[in-house]
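One-letter codes give the sequence; the fold follows as tokens. Both lines appear below.
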Amino acid sequence: MKNKNNNSQLHSENVHQNGYQFSELIEAYPTLKEFVFVNKYNTETINFADPKAVKALNTALLFKYYYIAYWDFPDDNLCPPIPGRVDYIHHLADLLKNSNITKNVNIIDVGVGANCIYPLLGNSVYSWRFLGTDIDKKSIDRAEKIVKKNALSKSIQFKQQKDATQIFQGILNENDKFSATMCNPPFYRSQEEAMQANARKLAGLGNDAKARNFSGKQQELWYKGGEKAFIHTYLYESSMFKKQCFWYTTLVSKKENVQSMYDSLSKLGATEIKTIPMHQGNKVTRVVAWTFLTAEEQSAW
């Protein structure tokens, strides 16, 4: 039986537009079976407030659609929803294609995390190469294990950012040349804010908010000053490496942060700025992309 909750607003290339075929997913990853049930609408689903159920579903999606044979990390690390994450990949592919960048694509994933999700998806769908960066050595170790077990070490590599106040300094050098960066910034300003938001989410799902089925480590979820502070550091440091990357991009959850980004990027010398809307169910978010290259430099890339 198929999950009738479709995701028709997803990117046209996204294979998850029409919901989940649970029988096929269970065949790909039998562990999922224990979490699937039929709800009052006679639809197969899982309890999306249960982190283990969510992890099983997303593991099954990776196994079924993206040729991943191993994907495991501690339960206290963030478990990303595959349909939304691969949407970013597809929109980034459109951006690169429109700039005539289709061969030898190499991407920096800022804050790759233990789950290594963007490199796995980008390599599977488009054969991109990745450099994943993170401030947490344990997360990089976990991501490296996933990559090695999937025989992807030639395509996906890692570098630890040893200074938590920096993003591209210590990672990029003057001889580097990357097609794009991508990033899913920490959203909250503190652990308390993150926990309160999670409790509201659980309540909305019809669960006892006190349960707090919470996953995600500090560097994955909160940053002093929240999303806005992180992004503005990201913008500033991108301007220090104007020729090393064609497109810098980041997810931006809070719409009110976009205008200040445009203002800052104009001052920093960006030659082109784009906002790419993304719709995931009832959630609306966006990717903001910018470049410092002149038209001549873009043509010669």
Notes: Residues 81 and 286 are 16 Å apart (CA to CA). The chain has one domain: 74-299. Confidence is low (pLDDT under 50) at residues 193-200, 207-223. The longest strand covers residues 272-280.
